[in-house]
């Protein structure tokens, strides 16, 4: 679940290995609240707060970090985020949120793409002067390819690559960037192998076509951005073969391959990063890990179940047009599954 650092000793990745012992970790669920201190916060909470203070200041608040980073900034990144970095990737940059991360990933892709165009050289005087007037070559005509049903954020730039719900995009101007088909598989997967392989190939062919179309328009695709699972868009999945094919297309065309793991990163899919399941040649039922979903005949029926289940003590959520998604906690045992199924069965009988 947590590469190079187990769940029970995650704090040792942040601080020193001797600062906490495994014996202090709870091994069973409490029957109810238990107060063991005379005041809140208690001593352990105060200790944790003190340890987290340096992390908060240097990596979360990040005041004037671009010019005056703390002297321990690089070391703290390596000791924390470094221990869960995706395979083959060493560099880490912290951002305020998912939208900020995606915006800066796209900007980095544009800068890299233009640097390759210039043969590795920095911008010259013409680039620097023309960009202030939003003219070429300093302001290049480039694009980012995204997918139908994807969600990458609500900032101005990311709304162009977000295609999950109209309410996110209405009344907001957008770039003329390409959008390709994302797989919509037929389930059960093991009974529809050939049909789903055809769907993968159709989607990959659509990506190739869109890249050529935008190149012909003089607006080359500099980056492809994709989610391992389209969570907001309806819990739609792509096969490892689809994503490997997508990466190969990007590599062949000199395009940056951006994997948006804002929702799938962190262990919920059975690995810390969902793209680890793809067996990519190089770094970057219906369900994966604790990510799971089902479709309902209508959005109204889905919404009715969401409300009914909540009243019965089961929290589930809607996604896409008519999808119902489940997001259990990372600590989720068979007894929790049985409770969830009992509540789900009860709720289904009431709608």
TrEMBL record:
Residues 23-42 are annotated as: Disordered. One of its GO terms (cellular component) is mitochondrion. It comes from the Eukaryota. GO terms for biological process: gamma-aminobutyric acid catabolic process. Keywords: Aminotransferase, Pyridoxal phosphate, Transferase. It catalyses: 4-aminobutanoate + 2-oxoglutarate = succinate semialdehyde + L-glutamate. The keyword Transferase applies. InterPro entries: Aminotrans_3, PyrdxlP-dep_Trfase, PyrdxlP-dep_Trfase_major, PyrdxlP-dep_Trfase_small. Gene3D superfamilies: Aspartate Aminotransferase, domain 1, Type I PLP-dependent aspartate aminotransferase-like (Major domain). It holds the Pfam family Aminotran_3. The keyword Transferase applies. Its cofactor is pyridoxal 5'-phosphate. GO terms for molecular function: 4-aminobutyrate:2-oxoglutarate transaminase activity; pyridoxal phosphate binding. Belongs to the class-III pyridoxal-phosphate-dependent aminotransferase family. PANTHER family: 4-AMINOBUTYRATE AMINOTRANSFERASE, MITOCHONDRIAL, AMINOTRANSFERASE. This is 4-aminobutyrate aminotransferase. It comes from Diploscapter pachys.
């Amino acid at each position: 679940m947590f590469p190079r650092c187990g769940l029970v000793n995650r704090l040792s990745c942040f601080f020193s290995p001797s600062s906490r012992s495994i014996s202090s970790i709870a091994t069973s669920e409490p029957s109810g609240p238990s107060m063991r201190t005379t005041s809140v916060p208690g001593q352990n909470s105060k200790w944790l707060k003190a340890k987290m203070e340096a992390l908060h200041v240097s990596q979360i608040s990040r005041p004037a970090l671009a010019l005056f980073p703390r002297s321990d900034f690089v070391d703290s990144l390596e000791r924390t985020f470094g221990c869960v970095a995706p395979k083959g990737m060493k560099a880490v940059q912290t951002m305020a949120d998912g939208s900020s991360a995606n915006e800066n990933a796209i900007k980095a892709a544009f800068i890299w793409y233009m640097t390759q165009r210039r043969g590795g050289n920095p911008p010259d005087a013409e680039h620097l002067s023309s960009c202030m007037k939003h003219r070429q070559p300093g302001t290049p005509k480039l694009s980012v390819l995204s997918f139908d049903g994807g969600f990458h954020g609500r900032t101005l730039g990311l709304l162009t690559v977000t295609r999950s719900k109209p309410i996110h995009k209405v009344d907001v101007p957008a770039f003329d960037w390409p959008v390709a088909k994302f797989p919509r598989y037929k389930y059960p997967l093991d009974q529809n192998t050939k049909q789903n392989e055809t769907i993968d190939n159709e989607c990959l062919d659509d990506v190739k076509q869109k890249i050529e179309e935008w190149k012909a328009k003089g607006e080359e695709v500099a980056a492809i951005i994709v989610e391992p699972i389209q969570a907001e868009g309806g819990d739609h999945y792509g096969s490892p073969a689809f994503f490997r094919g997508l990466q190969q297309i990007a590599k062949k065309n000199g395009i940056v391959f951006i994997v948006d793991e804002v929702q799938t990163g962190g262990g919920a899919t059975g690995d810390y990063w969902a793209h680890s399941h793809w067996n990519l040649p190089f770094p970057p039922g219906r369900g994966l890990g604790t990510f799971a979903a089902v479709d309902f005949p209508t959005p109204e029926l889905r919404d009715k179940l969401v409300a009914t289940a909540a009243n019965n003590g089961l929290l589930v959520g809607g996604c896409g047009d008519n999808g119902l998604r489940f997001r259990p906690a990372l600590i989720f045992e068979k007894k929790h599954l049985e409770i969830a199924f009992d509540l789900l069965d009860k709720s289904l009988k009431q709608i």
